[in-house]
Design goal:
This protein has 492 residues and is α/β, with parallel strands linked by helices. 40% of the residues lie in helices and 17% in strands. It is built from 19 helices and 18 strands. The protein has an 8-stranded parallel beta barrel with strand order 1-2-3-4-5-6-7-8, surrounded by 7 helices. Strands 15-14-13-16-17-18 form a 6-stranded mixed β-sheet, with helices on both faces. A two-stranded antiparallel ribbon has the order 9-12. α14 crosses α15.
C-alpha cells in the first residue's frame, strides 16, 4: 500500500488555505492534504475544486454520522467532488457504514461511469471510519461515553466492524495502528492523526507519537497539522516529516527533464545493472502500474464487479483521464511514453492521438520528442472539410498512434485503418495500459499492427498484490476474467 503524509489544512477560510498552498507551488511533489469541517463548512465544494486544480490529493474529513439512509445519499454526493478519501464515524453501526459504502459506490458509478465521461476525472475515494478521536483519553471514554472496555478493545472492535462493512480502513491513533493491522490485515488501511515531532508540545492531542515511531509501528497514512502549518518553514517541516516517515523524494520522483532523450524513470525495484541510459520496459511497467493504482486511474474491485456499458461484469475499472490531473504520475507516464517510442519505433515521424483520450498524451509526448502531432476522430466531421484526421499528414509519413487504453482493440484498429487509407505508414500503436485480452492480441496480429503498452493487467495485478491493494485469491480471479471476460465464472 502506498504510504503518505497528509497535511491537515485547519484554516478558517479560502484565503489562508491558498496562501499556505502557494508555498508548495514550485515543489514537484504536491502534498496530500486534509480538508475538515472548519474549512469545508465555510467555503463549500469550491475550495475542493481549487485545491484539486493545484494537483493535490484530498482527504475530506467530515466524519459523517447519521441514520443509514441519510449517510448513503450524502456519500453519493461526495463522490462527485473527486476527493481521494472520505470518512464516517464507526459509532454509526455496521449498517450505517454499509450504507455509506453503497452510496459512495453508487455516486462513483453515476458520475464517473462510461456514460458520463464529461465528469470522468473523479474517482471513488477510499472510505474509512473514525474509531476514537485522538483527543479522547481512556478516562473520557469511561466517564463521558460510558464505554467500559479499554481503549484498545474499543478501537479494535470499531475496526473489525468497519472491515465487515467493506470499508478500506480506519482512523485511529498510532498506538492502535499495530493491533488493527494484526487483527484486520495489513491491507486494511490505518490513517493516524496525533503526529508530533519529538519534543513538540501536545496541544489538545492525548494519544500521539512521532513520524519515526509511526513508521516503525506500520502506519499507512499520518495526518500532520500544526507541526507543519504553524512552523516557520512549512515546506522544510513537510519534507522533514516525509523523511522521518520513510518517504525519500529522490526515490519517489522521476527525472522529468524534457530533453527529448530517454529520461530515467526511478524504480527502486529495478535491478541496478539495468542500462542507466534507458530502463527496461519491464521496469517502466511496474512504475506506471504503481502510479495508476496510487491515483486510482485503475480501480480493482473483484468482490463487487463493475458493469461495463456492454453488460460485462468486470473486476477492474480504468479511467486514464485521471493521469492528466496528477502531475507527478503524468510526468512518469509521458516520459515513459517518449522513452518507449524512441526505443520501439525509432523511425517515428508523426504522432497521432486517438479521440479523445489519446490527444493530450500525443501532444505532451510530441513536445518531449519534438515531433508533429495530430489526432484521428471517431468519425468524419459532418461540416466544413469533413476531416477525420486533424493535423497535417503527408502521404508516406511514418506514424505512431497514441492510445490511453486498449481493451478489445477495436477502436485502435479503426484508427490505424483510417491512417492507412490516408496514405500513412503506421509503425504501431503505443498505449498506456492494456487489459491484454485475447481478442485484442488476435486483432492486432490480423491487422499486422505492432502494439506496445507501458503496463498491462498482468503487471498491474502483480504490483497491486505486493502493495496490498488485493489478495492472492483476487489475482487469480482477475486473470481468469482477462482470459474470458464474457464468462462470469471468474467471480466464483
Amino acid at each position: 500500500m502506498q504510504k503518505d503524509v497528509i497535511i491537515a489544512l485547519d484554516f478558517p477560510s479560502r484565503k489562508e488555505t491558498l496562501e499556505f498552498l502557494d508555498l508548495f507551488e514550485s515543489e514537484e511533489r504536491k502534498p496530500f492534504v486534509k480538508v475538515g469541517m472548519e474549512l469545508f463548512y465555510r467555503e463549500g465544494p469550491d475550495i475542493i475544486r481549487e485545491i484539486k486544480e493545484r494537483g493535490h490529493k484530498i482527504f475530506l474529513d467530515l466524519k459523517l454520522h447519521d441514520i443509514p439512509n441519510t449517510v448513503e445519499h450524502a456519500m453519493s454526493n461526495l463522490a462527485f467532488l473527486g476527493v481521494d478519501m472520505v470518512n464516517v464515524h464507526a459509532q454509526g453501526t455496521i449498517e450505517m457504514m454499509k450504507a455509506a459504502k453503497k452510496g459512495l459506490d453508487a455516486g462513483f458509478e453515476k458520475y464517473c461511469g462510461d456514460d458520463n465521461y464529461e465528469l470522468g476525472d473523479k474517482a471513488r475515494p477510499f472510505l474509512i471510519a473514525v474509531t476514537q478521536l485522538t483527543s479522547t483519553s481512556e478516562e473520557d471514554m469511561h466517564n463521558d461515553l460510558l464505554i467500559e472496555k479499554s481503549m484498545v478493545e474499543a478501537v479494535l472492535h470499531y475496526g473489525e466492524n468497519a472491515k465487515k462493512a467493506g470499508l478500506d480502513g480506519v482512523v485511529c491513533s498510532p498506538r492502535e495502528a499495530e493491533i488493527i493491522h494484526k487483527e484486520c490485515g495489513e491491507s486494511f488501511m490505518t490513517v493516524t492523526p496525533g503526529i508530533r515531532f519529538e519534543g513538540a508540545k501536545k496541544d489538545d492531542q492525548v494519544r500521539i507519537t512521532s513520524p519515526e515511531k509511526a513508521k516503525e509501528i506500520g502506519c499507512d497514512f499520518i495526518v500532520v497539522g500544526r507541526p507543519i502549518t504553524k512552523s516557520d518553514d512549512p515546506v522544510k517541516s513537510y519534507k522533514r516529516c516525509l523523511k522521518d516517515f520513510g518517504i525519500e523524494l529522490n526515490k519517489e520522483l522521476s527525472n522529468t527533464g524534457k530533453t527529448g532523450k530517454c529520461d530515467e524513470v526511478v524504480d527502486e525495484n529495478v535491478d541496478e545493472n539495468v542500462d542507466s541510459e534507458c530502463k527496461t520496459l519491464e521496469g517502466i511497467s511496474g512504475e506506471v502500474a504503481k502510479g495508476l493504482l496510487e491515483i486510482k486511474a485503475v480501480f480493482l474491485r473483484p468482490e463487487e464487479p463493475f458493469t461495463w456499458a456492454s453488460g460485462i461484469k468486470s473486476p477492474i475499472y480504468c479511467d486514464n483521464r485521471l493521469i492528466l490531473t496528477a502531475p507527478h504520475v503524468r510526468d512518469i507516464v509521458e516520459d515513459a511514453l517518449a522513452q518507449t517510442i524512441e526505443k520501439e519505433f525509432p523511425d517515428c515521424e508523426v504522432l497521432m492521438g486517438t479521440a479523445t483520450a489519446g490527444i493530450a498524451h500525443a501532444a505532451i509526448v510530441g513536445e518531449i520528442l519534438n515531433l508533429p502531432m495530430g489526432y484521428v476522430r471517431g468519425s468524419a466531421k459532418d461540416h466544413g472539410r469533413t476531416n477525420r484526421i486533424e493535423g497535417r499528414l503527408e502521404k508516406g509519413s511514418k506514424v505512431v498512434v497514441i492510445e490511453d487504453l486498449i481493451s478489445t482493440g477495436g477502436s485502435s484498429i479503426e484508427t490505424v485503418e483510417a491512417l492507412r487509407e490516408a496514405g500513412a505508414e503506421v509503425l504501431g500503436v503505443m498505449s498506456i495500459f492494456t487489459y491484454k485480452m485475447k481478442k485484442s492480441v488476435e486483432r492486432f496480429a490480423e491487422s499486422k499492427v505492432k502494439a506496445v503498452s507501458l503496463a498491462d493487467l498482468d503487471s498491474l495485478v502483480d504490483v497491486a498484490a505486493k502493495g496490498g491493494y488485493i489478495n492472492d485469491g483476487d489475482v487469480a480471479k482477475i486473470l481468469r476474467f482477462r482470459d474470458n471476460p464474457s464468462d462470469e465464472s471468474w467471480m466464483k
